[in-house]
Design brief:
This protein has four helices and no strands. It is mostly helical. The chain has one domain (3-115). The longest helix is centred in the last third of the chain and has 31 residues, at 64-94. It is elongated.
C-alpha cells in the first residue's frame, strides 16, 4: 500500500472521528444553540475531511473528472453547511428560544431545596 493511500485513509478516519464527536455533542449538550454549534462545526469538518480523503484516493488513481466533482462538493459543503446552521440559529433566536445558562441550573437546584 502506498503512502498516499495511507494518508487518505487516515484523513477519512479523522473525518469519521469528527462526525462521531459531533454526534456525541448532539446527545450531551444542554440546549438547541450549543447542539447546533457542535453539529455545524463537527459535521462540516468531518464531511470535508472524508471527501478530501476520497479526493486523494481518486487522484492517486489518476481519475481527474471525479476529482473535480469532489472539489466542487467540498466547496458546496463549505458554503452551505455553515450558512444553514446560521439560518437555523437565527430562526430559533427570532422565535425567542431561550438559551441555557449555567446559572439556570443552579437556580433550579436552589428552588428544589427550598421546596423540601
Amino acid at each position: 500500500m502506498q503512502f498516499i493511500q495511507l494518508l487518505a485513509y487516515f484523513i477519512i478516519s479523522l473525518g469519521a472521528f469528527f462526525l462521531l464527536v459531533g454526534s456525541i455533542g448532539l446527545l450531551r449538550l444542554p440546549d438547541f444553540y450549543s447542539r447546533a454549534h457542535a453539529q455545524g462545526k463537527a459535521d462540516t469538518l468531518g464531511i470535508m475531511l472524508i471527501i478530501l480523503g476520497l479526493l486523494i484516493v481518486e487522484l492517486s488513481h489518476g481519475l481527474l473528472i471525479n476529482s473535480a466533482k469532489l472539489l466542487i462538493i467540498i466547496a458546496f459543503i463549505a458554503l452551505t453547511n455553515p450558512t444553514a446552521t446560521n439560518a437555523l440559529l437565527k430562526a430559533a433566536f427570532h422565535f425567542r428560544l431561550i438559551p441555557w445558562f449555567k446559572n439556570d441550573q443552579e437556580t433550579k437546584k436552589a428552588t428544589k431545596r427550598e421546596k423540601q
